């Protein structure tokens, strides 16, 4: 059963008496496995839904639907997976989940590798756990595009990195998808001394064979290592020199892709540019921004969103305002032009609070992985006053930080300042000029 968390007003479901808190237990008398089953059924126009009222299986109702143009069923569920989540069966040497503290939230220890999340929500999968039935379903329902973690096209190296013999089949799997009209976005997590250098050249050369209609994007991201990783491994993070080297290497491949296909499909994570001390590419470089969740182009979008809104805001304040903005070291670098511009506003006293990550380790420098405890410790040590901006990216969909803090934990702490949560750095201007800050995720750009 899957819970119905919303029924739209004036929808077909509402007209039939289906309510929030009811449960879906069957579609056309069959138990549904996921949201894909649901969408497939309603697209046929004529179907039935069996509902358990308020979850009580003894109170079942069967409703028949015959949809015409403009009709909507109007049901929202609490999950897109109605049966068991497919979990990762790899033991990747760089797996971030395996590098987390023992007291981390249970949900952060969950290693999902589900093709349905890939299709419906853009989560990256490895293709190592699919049954023949699931491969057939992907083709039958044309579940395209998929988001796939490749890392390398060297079969033996991929098998070694992921510690799974099935991982060596990546090339034939990508070919199979391409031959059946399934397009894909690919992710390469690069570990210095492992799948970079000549191995990265090999991977990008292999991927060059796919057409732009099949290969939609390649996102290259640096390995992330925490202080909780096994001490016996030999993985290292990227530094300034190695980041600059890989930028130059990939730049040549970006040019080859443009020459062959008339467009670029290879994108580097912002972290590479920031580590190397290079400027973030301009807006047009990122096309339609296909891999924002990988931190690719996020700095550019954030900066541009800020400066667009800045055009309509004053250059001074009638009275002094104290503003403290929480970020991490990488966020400090990524939005440096924004901080400089804010400091030019008359009567605005800006303090940038760059928080070191004690929870995961000092080498983790992205804002979204800051813990509530680290943030509060830093704020308390500075005895801050005024408004304190918390970037929404530190909270999950349930409003919790990595270590389980919510906004009320900050507001009830012994801090004199006023905590404000902002979804995008451009919303800082609303806070400064006493406009109503939107605390939702209005866009992909995040504060810090």
Question: Which labels suit this protein?
Answer:
448 residues; 13 strands; Pdz3 Domain; alpha/beta; 4-stranded parallel beta sheet; pyruvate-formate lyase- activating enzyme; disordered C terminus
Structural class: alpha/beta
**End-to-end gap:** 40 Å
Number of domains: 3
Portion of residues within helices: 25-40%
Taking Cα atoms only, what radius of gyration do you get, to the nearest Å?
24 Å
The assigned CATH architecture of the largest domain is: Alpha-Beta Horseshoe
Describe this structure in words.
By secondary structure, the chain is of the alpha/beta class. 30% of the residues lie in helices and 18% in strands. The chain has helices spanning 12-15, 35-43, 115-121, 132-140, 155-162, 170-179, 197-207, 240-261, 270-276, 298-310, 329-334, 336-342, 372-382, 407-411, 428-432; strands at residues 2-7, 23-27, 46-52, 60-66, 75-77, 146-149, 184-190, 215-222, 266-268, 316-327, 346-354, 387-391, 418-422. The strands form 3 sheets. A 5-stranded antiparallel β-sheet has the order 4-3-2-1-5. Strand 3 and strand 4 form a beta hairpin. It is globular and about 65 Å long. Mean pLDDT is 92; it is low at 436-448.
Describe the structure concisely for a colleague:
The chain is of the alpha/beta class. It is built from 15 helices and 13 strands.
